[in-house]
Amino acid sequence: MRILVTGGAGFLGSHLIDRLMEQGHEVLCLDNFYTGNKQNILHWFNHPNFELIRHDITEPIRLEVDQVYHLACPASPVHYQSNPIKTVKTNVLGTINMLGLAKRVKARFFLASTSEVYGDPDVHPQPESYWGNVNCTGIRSCYDEGKRIAETLTYDYHRQHGLEVRVVRIFNTYGPRMLPNDGRVVSNFIVQALRGTPLTIYGDGSQTRSFCYVSDLVEGFLRLMASDHHEPVNIGNPGEYTILELAQKIQQRINPDAQLKFEPLPQDDPKQRQPDITRAKNWLGWEPTVALDDGLTKTIDYFRDRLQLVSA
Ligand code: NAD
Ligand code: UDP
Fold first, then answer.
1. pLDDT digits 0-9 by tens, 80-102
2. Could you tell me how far CA 5 lies from the centroid of its own chain?
3. 165: three-class secondary structure by DSSP
4. Are residues 102 and 243 in the same domain?
5. Does the CB atom of residue 56 touch ligand 1 within 6 A?
6. 143 included as an active-site residue
7. Which residue has its alpha carbon closest to ligand 2 atom 13?
8. Which pLDDT does position 308 carry in this prediction?
9. Could you tell me the CA-to-CA distances from 47 to 20, 37, 65, 189 in Å, in that order?
10. Over the stretch 39-61, which tens digit does the pLDDT of each residue have?
11. Among residues 73, 114, 273, 287, which one has the fewest Cβ atoms lying within 10 Å of its Cβ?
């Protein structure tokens, strides 16, 4: 098949491309390189099945493909909040453009949505049937409301035009190829511990997140795309940790002498998050296989190499 991956030079997109290329598909990687990186896909540059397109999805584009994996959107709060209007445009105009493309060529459309559609949840863990608790005027809303409208658009194209759609709600995912300055918690703590600077805990660290290793997530993507289910599906690892526990784990692993530094909690930071993965288990036969300790080992090794290269 010929498959378009928007945001393909980013963290998740590049891992997805690796799997699609290994399966023998023709892959079109589309990216504007806002948070993406050529390094992530460099190993495919000379492969005849791989094509790179520098393009911003807020502008229309005509391409002939069989499937679209739509991932383009900055995912880290630091990046999506640095130009919030652009984030909204990417989610609204960009998603309309990619849905329009899929409709024109009758391609199956896969939306990378997020656990952020549940906002600061008052139902725990979060099943797909939960409608969420989202502040539509806060600093996170460019992203979480942006993703909610992206879901709305996806289901309107499904109902109005019969488009084949798949929607994944991704919970916090980590692994190699996150940017050292990404701003998300796992990469921040690892990079800080490796550099010997204090680990920055926002608030008192009692808020929770559930961390999924990237290879597990991508396996869930492929299974969902191949399935017959158009309703949203949570993909994430239900292992739930407080941010303080995560900091201590990484501190012990890398540098027990590293300091922990408490900083103000950002506005609307969700207090708890854990996926209910009953749907993924029943519909896709999917569940995570990589324990946090093992995934952290691989991620720490990656950043150790990467930071050495930078300082060399
Ligand atoms: P990332 O920032 O590494 O990747 C996003 C990619 O999209 C980058 O390569 C970036 O350059 C590209 N991009 C951004 N705006 C674009 C535009 N207007 N036009 C073209 N390309 C554009 O983030 P990621 O972690 O790989 O996330 C990928 C997708 O998964 C995003 O849609 C994100 O919302 C979703 N997601 C990720 C997580 C996670 O934990 N990693 C959690 C929930 C949802
Ligand atoms: N966080 C933190 N220190 C950091 C980065 C993040 O304590 O250096 C916290 C952040 O406030 C949030 C959690 O870690 O409570 C997860 O943050 P991240 O940005 O990784 O993801 P999200 O908030 O989007 O789930």
1. 999 999 999 999 999 999 999 99
2. 13
3. strand
4. no
5. yes
6. yes
7. 185
8. 84
9. 13, 18, 18, 36
10. 999 999 999 999 999 999 999 99
11. 287
